[in-house]
# Entry
Amino acid sequence: MKLRLDLSLVCFLVLLSTGCWSAQDDAARLEEVKAVWARLPIYSGLQEIDSSTTYGYGKAMISKKYRSKARYDDVKRFYVEHLIPDGWTMISEKKIVDVGTDFGGYHIEFRKGDLSLGLEYAGEKVNYEWQYAIAVSWSRWVRKT
# Structure
């Protein structure tokens, strides 16, 4: 029984590694994500303090963190006014609650085809080095809109 289970697991992992994604596709999608960032307007009050790029295994993402004293409503309005005319759809806005505590943070998600853009506001009651984070990503596992 154990040998059959181990063999099944090996077959499943081989199938995943050969048929579900390719490094070339992931690299091409990373270029799409870079192109979105190249066109993305940045709110004038945001100062970039960190950036991260990851791709592989059916995903590609570039995320950046920003320091700012800008009000959330102003930053939200800026991105809604710039992204929606460019074909993005705002699919959610959620209040962030961390371990039952409300620090005043929000997360907004936009979609365009199989690309996602997330805007996060950490909240006025937290003491992070950053106040805003923006991530643009593609995932083979997210349905197109």
